[in-house]
Amino acid sequence: MKIFLSSTILDLEDLRDVLVNWLTVDRYQIIASEKGTLPIEPGKRSYEQCLEAVSNCDCLIALIDGRFGGEYPQKGSN
Fold it and tell me: Which of 53, 55, 68, 74 has its CA 20 to 30 A from that of 61?
């Protein structure tokens, strides 16, 4: 099973590491940008790459705290 792990990175690093270690013991494939497992395509925006990776996963784990990452652009803007 392929799992996409989503959250802000710097403030949830310890929790993310625990989850990745725990899930990989059970042989789940983890997609996480800081682990180098998120496919990167030059010229694509980070949110586009994340949405594409999520669509290719079986499960999404979203860790939510007080911070947030980049903002998704409004329709019609760059």
Answer: 74
What do you get for the CA distance between the two ends of the chain, in Å?
34
What residue numbers bound the domain in which 52 lies?
A: 2-62
The string of pLDDT tens digits covering residues 10-67 is 788 889 899 999 999 989 999 988 777 888 889 988 888 888 999 999 999 999 887 7
Overall domain count for the chain: 1
**Would you say residue 46 lies in a domain?**
yes
